[in-house]
Amino acid sequence: MSEIKPSDFVHLKYEFADHIARVTLNRPEVRNALNARAYAELEAAFRHIQNDGDVRCVVLTGTDPAFCSGEDVKQMMTGPAREQSQARLTAVRPRLTPAAEAVLACDRPIIAAVNGVAVGWGMELTLFADIRIASDKAQFGEIFIKRGLVTDVGGMMILPRIVGPQKAAELLFTGDVIGAAEAARIGLVSRTVPHDQLLNEAMELAGRIAVNAPLALRFLKEGMRRAAAQDVAEFGSWVSGTLGRLFQTEDHKEGVASFLEKRAPHFKGRLRWPCFSTPRGSMPSFRLRGRRAKPSPLTWVSPPRRWLSCGRTNANSSRTRCWPLQGFLAQRRKKLPITRAYRRPSPKCRQARAKWRPSSRKSTAA
């Protein structure tokens, strides 16, 4: 879907004139929320811009009444698109969101003309721009925490550089939505203008940029990116992997359900088993209660040395060689009751090990 041509766009409008490309999100019936097709078209638009040498500046906006209200929850989090997203996020080395990667990789100056609500991934999109101009109707919010998720790279990498770590933390941790005046006060946008003048202001600024040397513009943007000195691809991989895990939590399920049911969420901080992968070389801990050993879903530890072979079951066998859990597993195979011997080696076990160790040293030396 990344090979979509601008002439085939359904949810985006692409216009080009006087070295300025204008990209308009065009799903006004859902406040320009992004579904899988809209994501693919957004990626394709910026790939096209990057390959078009005539483009010198980009203006990104939305069809009224909103800039972008984030992801289309009904399609992206509950429909078939969720499985595709999960496959990408749970890969061994997950990639940065393809649309975000395309926008961030674009070396032309990008102006976001924020004409209304920009929340969730909509606010992320404004953060990917170099300059943000807001109408007096604009609103901004990193509401990922309300869905039990973390932000994309914009919220954690770019937002703290713009408004400072403390204000960024407040916006990220609370999920508060702020208006245009507050956004201008904290420096999130460069200016606010009356709603009916927004597009004219953005295009006028883009025209002043586009008359300058195009190669110098591209190198200036690349220099500013290098000055940040943070590997976006590596950090994006971490973000995608984290989202892949958080998508499996009960909190995320509750966040989506509360949104669809139009009620306040009730988060419990609980994982849906299995969620996190097993660290290499580790095993699940066991709760020694009764005859059954039940794995603990949230605790992963190396096998304790106290679970060494012991007791009359195998004290005189080769399993006396202190392999972790061998005595425990032998008892489980024979369906014998679990005794305290497996929490602390019995005297008989200690004697057997003491007899075995000197002989093993001699055999090794020989």
Write structural notes for this entry:
By secondary structure, the chain is an alpha/beta fold. The chain folds into 2 domains: 256 residues, 2-enoyl-CoA Hydratase, Chain A, domain 1; 83 residues, no CATH class. Helices cover 42% and strands 16% of the residues. It is built from 14 helices and 12 strands. Strands 1-2-3-5-7-10 form a 6-stranded mixed β-sheet, with helices on both faces. It has a 4-stranded mixed β-sheet with strand order 4-6-8-9. Strand 11 and strand 12 form a beta hairpin. Helix 1 packs parallel to helix 4, helix 5 packs across helix 6 and helix 6 packs across helix 7. The longest helix is centred in the C-terminal third of the chain and has 19 residues. It starts with 11 loop residues before the first strand and ends with a helix. 35% of the residues are buried. The C terminus is likely disordered.
